[in-house]
Write a structure and sequence with these properties.
This protein is an alpha/beta fold. The protein has helices at 3-19, 43-46, 53-65, 83-91, 103-108, 118-125, 137-146; strands at 26-31, 34-40, 73-79, 96-101, 130-132.
Amino acid sequence: MRDEEFMRIALETAWKGIKLGEAPFGACLVKEGQVVVRVHNVARRSWDITAHAEVQAIREACRMLKTLDLSGTVLYATCEPCPMCFSASIWAKLPRIVYGARIEDAERLGIRQIPIDSARMKQMSRWPVELTADVLRAEGIELLKAWPRTG
């Protein structure tokens, strides 16, 4: 599969999360061309503010693969990871992160963010993660726009 196909899986998963009242973010984690996990934010359902899609993907993949080292995987996120999610990706040793919408897109649409982009976090962390931005960005922005802000 290509990046767009995996991103579509993350987007579909995020739409399911919105229908359940969750924030408009989805992710999938891929190893050797196979989807290991596909998740959306579950902060509201779990009463856990840290339950962002990217963190959930890392948690579930670590449990499934029985490892804390996800160096053979790729994270696909519908929106650029926030600093918490980016940090979790570094600790999990992810070699590549692919994202659609940007932090600035979410912020512009009224979704509170810490405005530090992934390129800056990569530079600060000194981790050689490969970043691929703007994959199906327009679809990611539509996802953000569709979210009924309920607090």
